[in-house]
Specification:
single chain; about 270 residues; alpha/beta; eight-stranded parallel beta barrel; 10 helices; about 45% helix; binds pterin-6-yl-methyl-monophosphate
């Protein structure tokens, strides 16, 4: 069955020492809840990649994610680090992360591919054309579905040339990254072409704006989570290896129902 990656963001609230400590504790507790709800792995991030987001300094990113990764990996859980920075990836793997989730696919930090090659971690290459501050300026495509696959395969070649074994590379079409509403649907419609590359495919639609647009404007979290659960099933049917979601229980239930339907009398 398609795996569930639960999202653990450590990006909100206070930056004071006291606040950070509490925040790490809350993030660890949140990660444990997601795992108890059925997440197969948790993705810990310390830098927002939302449209318009500013970069955070590397030291702050490390201070946010490393204690959370160490605690969750210490439980024996499978943990990934959501980062575009080589130094954060290296430190996160040392703290116990077994997967580096780089939405920029190595394009944001020229040291990233070598850093990952020096570890035994799996590597998620996201489709990316530029930082959040101005990513929509680059959302100019002919055939977005095939351009995403072509551009990802260029990054795969770069990763392999840096010494990352092919089988450790996971591809992610980067939903919402340098893509406007309808372009995201085109990419999802063409997901089987990405799966046909033979790489494991990760899909992140959770709570994103294009879902809210599809279901009618200012949809709150509950409606976005329901819409996300539907996309989890469709991603699974298209052959995705994993989906990255905030609300694990909704997507877990949806995937179980789809599996039962497909199994017929054996479901
Ligand atoms: N989306 C976000 C962050 N990290 N990682 C991967 N691999 N794929 C994604 O689509 C992705 C990601 C942005 O979402 P968030 O700010 O809600 O976590």
């Amino acid at each position: 069955m398609t795996l569930l990656m639960g999202v653990v963001n450590t990006t909100s609230d206070s930056f004071s020492d006291g606040g950070r400590y509490l925040e790490a504790g809350a993030a660890v507790a949140h990660g444990r809840r997601l795992l108890a709800a059925g997440a197969d792995l948790v993705d810990v991030g310390g830098e927002s990649t939302r449209p318009g987001a500013e970069r955070v300094p590397a030291d702050l990113e490390k201070a946010r994610v490393l204690p959370v990764i160490a605690a969750l990996a210490g439980d024996g859980s499978l943990v990934s680090v959501d980062t575009m920075r080589a130094s954060v990836a290296t430190a996160a793997v040392a703290a116990g992360a077994r997967l580096v989730n780089d939405v920029a696919g190595g394009l944001a930090d020229p040291a990233m591919l070598d850093a990952v090659a020096a570890t035994a971690a799996d590597y998620v290459i996201g489709h990316w054309r530029g930082h959040s501050a101005d990513m929509y300026a680059r959302a100019d495509y002919g055939d977005v579905g095939s351009e995403v696959v072509e551009e990802l395969l260029v990054r795969v070649d770069a990763a392999i040339a840096s010494g990352i074994p092919r089988e450790r590379i996971v591809l992610d079409p980067g939903i919402g990254f340098g893509k406007r509403g309808a372009q995201n649907w085109a990419v999802l419609h063409d997901l089987p072409a990405l799966v046909a590359t033979g790489h494991r495919v990760l899909v992140g639609t959770s709570r994103k704006g294009f879902l809210a647009e599809a279901i009618g404007g200012e949809a709150g979290e509950a409606r976005r989570d329901l819409a996300t659960a539907v996309t989890s099933v469709l991603a699974a049917q298209a052959g995705a290896w994993a989906v990255r979601v905030h609300d694990v229980s909704a997507s877990r239930d949806a995937l179980r129902v789809a599996t039962a339907w497909q199994g017929g009398a054996d479901g």
